[in-house]
Amino acid sequence: MDGRRISASPRPCSGRRVVAKKRSRGGIDGFVNSVKKLQRREICSKRDRSFSMSDAQERFRNIRLQEEYDTHDPKGHCAMVLPFLKKRSKIIEIVAARDIVFALAQSGVCAAFSRETNNRICFLNVSPDEVIRSLFYNKNNDSLITVSVYASDNFSSLKCRTTRIEYIRRGKPDAGFALFESESLKWPGFVEFDDVNGKVLTYSAQDSIYKVFDLKNYTMLYSISDKNVQEIKISPGIMLLIFTKASGHVPLKILSIEDGTVLKSFNHLLHRHKKVDFIEQFNEKLLVKQENENLQILDVRNSELTEVSRTEFMTPSAFIFLYENQLFLTFRNRTVAVWNFRGELVTSFDDHLLWHPDCNTNNIYITSDQDLIISYCKAESDDPLAEGNAGSINVSNILTGKCLAKIKATSGKATDDCSADCCAPGGRSCNSKRRVQASRIRSTVAEALEDITALFYDEERNEIYTGNRLGLVHVWSN
């Protein structure tokens, strides 16, 4: 469902791109036809939307804190482990697949937990000096890809490794194998996993070469060697190459993602002395925004240009493209908004003020149907239990902005319109001051809702997993 770029810098990796499971093929006409297919699918899906929204409310009703896992092992995950890997640190990423929950701590330790036994299966770090930076579940071959740096390399290069989920289930994380060994992924190099197209993009800064690999079998498909390429943006079926800015314009190329064929080359005019806030590609639409200028939406098929006033559309901190619905989400100052490609605001949310001002997308989950957004949010200001660091987990309808469910620290029964019950095991209401009576759960509900640093929703199990600054993982289920 998501594409993720992991950079070889010390900085955190870039945000999540949420995309529909649809592949475009062919030339410039091919990807336009693919857009039409997506639109037809969207029309068909509207028939089931009224049912799915009521179903969503029911899905999250009576949700409760059910389990607690701890990623911290004071002894370390193996002998001779690096000292900082023994320290307790916050969860930065959670991935779940096949009844296994993977939790990655900022220290670089990644633990796997079984939802069947609720025991820790193993640590994914297969060597004492391995610091895991990010995770990616490859549904094409049911494996987990870890992206790591190593002390032996002075933490300078990204190394990728794939391990079948079945091996991890057996407690054999070392049964995997290395990927992209021929690539030198040192800063500013990166690796990007593109789930929608089934591709992997790598950039070796050492020789200024981009390479595209097949996500199914990791074979290299083609390479792009051009030192003037400043950035590559991936969209269903295509890639946008952004070249070094020239005087008054930026050269652009659209390539087929399948074989690298150039589909279109063109220049986009820019204001000479203003920095470019962003250039983004969405199928046939090009979005360009410069500092203190209007948003420009260019249709690359016919050069039709739409402008949105800079007072209406201000530069967001992050995007999430909703390919299924032909819309995009923007994040700015803790708020979320939904736009269409005519530059119109489609949705603003009733009750969805994000907790983190920097839009950490590891605290946001978009369902595969792209109808719900689940986020860690600020609790209501009039909630007497909202003091301190306790927030709430909000579930909202993307198309209407309506809050459908909310997990919050409360002693009373939840309301129907925008709350799910938070209950102790057995179904009784829980007081936030009372600890949930379960062998593994040491946190109160209020404590479990404090300082959440990562969030994931398992759609198959209908469970939400959250991680916090203490390295704990909490399971919310009904």
TrEMBL record:
Domain of life from the UniProt record: Eukaryota
Record-linked Pfam families: DUF7899
Gene3D superfamilies named in the record: YVTN repeat-like/Quinoprotein amine dehydrogenase
InterPro entries: DUF7899, WD40/YVTN_repeat-like_dom_sf
Entry-linked PANTHER family: OS05G0482600 PROTEIN (PTHR31789)
Protein name: Transducin/WD40 repeat-like superfamily protein
